[in-house]
Amino acid sequence: MPTTRRATLLRPLAAVAAGALPLPALAQGGEFPNRPLRMIIPFPPGGGSDILGRLLAQRMGEALGQPVVPENRSGAGGNIGTEAVAKAPPDGYTLVIVFNTIVVNQFVYAQLPFDLKRDLTPVAKVALAPTLICGGPKLQARDLREVVEISRREPGRLNHGTPGLGTITHVSCELMDAMSGGKLTQVHYRGTGPAVTACVSGEVELVSAPLSAVDELVKAGRLRALGNLAGQDSPLMPGVPTVAAAARLPGYAVDNWGAVLAPAGLPEPIRQKLESAARQAVDTPEGRAALASRGIESSFGDGRALAAVIEADSRRWEPVIRKADIRVE
């Protein structure tokens, strides 16, 4: 990734920190916040983004002393809700909860109505959503190493269900193919639920999905947990190896992080107050327990750390997506 792109990403934070931006919210309304905030959840109710967004809204509201009202605004892989925040006033009262799909969308969608690095301000990274690759009853391979061997020996024989073209679990599997030299056939469904159901029924051999979507099925023996996509073992999935270890693919790691963004131009004092509220929401014993009970790991990072994660993931996913020719018109 060229240096100019990295500088573009970091510029909103650097400019605000240097005092180069105005303070509209502070000047017009006194101490921030003095009225309810909105937390846009750019996906439908019931999914991982919704679960995290509602919990975060509740706990950030407690920390800020004002309600944070969750609002689902779904469509276009999260782009519709995110666009609404990108175009909102930079006063701190409109936020969006995103997962790393937002980074992937830059390269998957032919046109985006916003620029992730120009139009949004990183507030804080708040969570990791443990994600598994699972085998269903149709899968004859004993483990992920055998899955990789079959995908090399008989490219395209095994089918992997995804919640949609260009989703993070889709490109994660493309990354595994690229690193292993094998080939799985991608079968795209409309959402995680249908993809998981297809694997349980034997329509596809494999599926990748968040822990919250497959935990009970794994415990019931209807799916087999073959690997954890993240770069490290998860305390929420004891005994499940990483894909890197299970498939013998050193360096494979897909951390499905969740984060809070705000419109670009957000005054630094307000950004810091929101960052502090996010920390209080997730980086405490109570916050960690609340997330864990919903199948999510607490993983706090400040705004600068989040900007660095976005930049690193952008460098990583662009060549994978270009090579696989994944495009959503």
Concise synopsis of the structure shown:
Belongs to the UPF0065 (bug) family. The protein is of the alpha/beta class. It is built from 14 helices and eleven strands.
Structure characterization notes:
Pfam families: TctC. Residues 1-27 form the signal peptide. InterPro entries: BUG (IPR005064), Bug_dom1 (IPR042100). The protein has helices at residues 3-17, 24-29, 48-64, 79-86, 101-108, 116-119, 144-153, 168-180, 192-201, 211-219, 243-246, 268-282, 285-292, 303-324; strands at 37-41, 68-72, 94-99, 120-128, 131-135, 159-162, 185-188, 206-210, 224-228, 257-263, 297-301. Helix 1 packs antiparallel against helix 14, helix 3 crosses helix 12 and helix 5 packs across helix 14 (303-324). The chain contains 14 helices and 11 strands. It is an alpha/beta fold. It has a 6-stranded mixed beta sheet, with helices on both faces. It has a 5-stranded mixed beta sheet with strand order 7-6-8-5-9, with helices on both faces. The chain has 2 domains: 3-129 and 256-324, D-Maltodextrin-Binding Protein, domain 2, CATH 3.40.190; 131-246, D-Maltodextrin-Binding Protein, domain 2 (3-Layer(aba) Sandwich), CATH 3.40.190.10. Helix 3 (48-64) links the parallel strand 1 and strand 2 (68-72). It starts with a helix and ends in a 5-residue tail after the last helix. Helix content is 45%, strand content 18%.
Given this structure, which CATH class of the largest domain is correct?
A: Alpha Beta
- Quaternary structure: single chain
First and last CA, distance: 24 Å
Give the class from helix and strand content and strand pairing. Answer: alpha/beta
Number of domains: 2
Output the strand order for the largest sheet: 2-1-3-10-4-11
- The SSE order reads HHEHEHEHHEEHEHEHEHEHEHHEH
Named CATH architecture of the largest domain = 3-Layer(aba) Sandwich
- In the CATH scheme, what's the topology name of the largest domain? D-Maltodextrin-Binding Protein, domain 2
The proportion of strand residues reads 15-25%
What is the number of E strands? 11
Helix content: 40-55%
Poorly predicted parts: 1-28
Largest beta-sheet details? 6 strands, mixed
Q: Name the CATH homologous superfamily of the largest domain.
A: Bordetella uptake gene, domain 1
Shape by Cα distribution: globular
Organism: Roseicella frigidaeris
InterPro entries: BUG, Bug_dom1
Protein name: Tripartite tricarboxylate transporter substrate binding protein
Keywords: Signal
